[in-house]
Input
Amino acid sequence: MSLKTGHGRDVAIADLLDRALNKGVVLWGEATISLAGVDLIYVGLRVLVASLETAQRIRGTGMTAAESPGEQGG
Amino acid sequence: MSDAEPRIYAYGIIRLGDGGTSPAPMDGLGGRPVRMISRGGLAALISDLTRQEGNRIDDVFSDPALVKDMVLDHHRVLQSMVEQYTVLPLRFGAVFASDDSIAAALEARHEALCEALERLDGAYEWGIKIFGDRTILLRRLREGSPTVRAAREQIAATSEGRAFFLRRKLEQISEEEIEHDIGRCIAASLQSLASTARAAATLKTQPRAIHGRADDMVWNGAYLVARDSEERFFECVAALKQANGPSGFDYECTGPWPPSSFAECRMGASDEP
Output
């Protein structure tokens, strides 16, 4: 994941998900349409992230590469 | 679920007076420009959802690949503001029906939002992860613990049948000792770090499949550190690394993050005044 923080460091997607999906103010105004189902997304994303990062690591160590599942330039 | 078509995504709240100038133009979710809706000196950072996203929001939120891009966009927008403004991050996924509904939320929650912003003033969130190498911990335990050394000597001097059971017992004692060592190291580390920070928050520890290291993540969390205390905070991390490195512990520091870990409150219908 090539996203940088303000100080130029790499951001790990797992760190980001923990914060974006579990923390932060829930401003539940009357007209908020959707905050439901976020836990479900989180589970889905964790699986996705784990599989992406495992695939990258396997490639990095020069072992036979598993196909990266649907990765876009990560 | 309302029948109204959802279409405005909200990232976070800032105080208009903080920045001096307006935020630089930037793209949000789906490449749509980020704009602001303001009430009473507070402004919500928002952008329109594209037609495809807005029309079928639940479908979008159940597509992991699309959501990953959206989470990254959410983070990028908040991150770009933290140097110029105190930013109160909203949890990912706040979609409003209209500009008016956001304005109404800002008005209704004005006091709570101002208080939440004040708690974050002049500080950044820094992530801290503590790792423990159980191989090193076990080796040091064998060398250093009198209990374990005595037990090993006893095993060496005893018959094979009895030694089997003693070995099992020793393994169990060693594991417990290692967990104690880890617990002690975490407690001492958190105490040192807390002395340089305004607040601390615990995050989920990550399994190896996520963090990708050979050792184990034994603690994961975040500190809210005032900018004029950053030097002390980093010195503290460096000192912990140096002091506990030989015992098998390591520390990772990430950030600065938009302070989501210190913006954890629900301003929901349940606490409606």
Observations:
- Residues 28 and 36 of chain A are 11 Å apart (CA to CA).
- The first strand of chain A starts at residue 32 and ends at 34.
